[in-house]
Specification:
By secondary structure, this protein is an alpha/beta fold. The protein is 33% helix and 19% strand. The relative contact order is 0.17. The model is unreliable at 1-7 and 150-155 (pLDDT under 50).
Length: 210
């Protein structure tokens, strides 16, 4: 069962009586993004294809908040199982590297974990994860900014390769993984680095789209 976690008296999402921390009703209320709507990007974006799992409805919003900001790490198991159920191991194995949106050291220390790392480590072997991009600018939380222009300015020159690791990217197929896609500015900033490092393919996968 996707929701077979430690027993609790109430569902953390809806607060109704439940033997599980996330009740089946809340899991069933998640809205899946239609696969026929997956997008091939061009022009203002540096990545090729965009994939996502869920629409950003109230249930997902609450789950993401609990996971990222209230340290409910068991959501990593739920999200990883949902991703594998809908995309399969073969989807992830098609890529040479998976890149996770890095947190700035200050934010990582405050939160205690990178939410994307915990999910992907349950899906692929650690040597497939590319940890050599770092966030060098401690930006404002993207969800607090209103316009795409503000988000772009906020992330300007925020990411860079560690040492000479850009050399590992040439001719490789890359999947960037993040939690929520809103305007695409975060993943596009990372994709820009990969594009100029001559990656063969740059795709994006997120848990949800807002």
């Amino acid at each position: 069962m996707l929701n077979s976690y430690l027993l609790d008296n109430r569902c953390l999402v809806c607060n109704n009586s439940s033997k599980d921390r996330v009740c089946q009703s809340c899991i069933d209320s998640l809205s899946y993004y239609p696969k026929e709507n997956f997008i091939t990007f061009s022009n203002n974006f540096y990545f090729n294809n965009f994939y996502t799992l869920l629409n950003f409805n109230n249930s997902l919003k609450k789950m993401i908040h609990l996971y990222k900001f209230e340290n409910k790490r068991f959501f990593a198991t739920l999200f990883s199982e949902l991703l594998l159920k809908n995309f399969s191991k073969e989807f992830f194995n098609n890529y040479d590297y998976i890149i996770l949106t890095p947190l700035h050291n200050k934010k990582l220390k405050k939160r205690g974990f990178n939410q994307t790392t915990l999910i992907i480590e349950k899906i692929v072997k650690k040597d497939k994860i590319f940890f050599n991009i770092e966030r060098v600018k401690n930006t404002k939380q993207q969800s607090l900014l209103n316009s795409r222009e503000e988000r772009i300015d906020n992330l300007d020159n925020s990411f860079m390769f560690k040492n000479s690791s850009y050399k590992l990217i040439k001719d490789k197929k890359i999947l960037i993984f993040d939690d929520i896609f809103t305007t695409g500015t975060t993943v596009n900033s990372i994709a820009k680095l990969l594009y100029f490092a001559e990656a063969k393919l740059i795709d994006v996968l997120t848990i949800g789209i807002a």
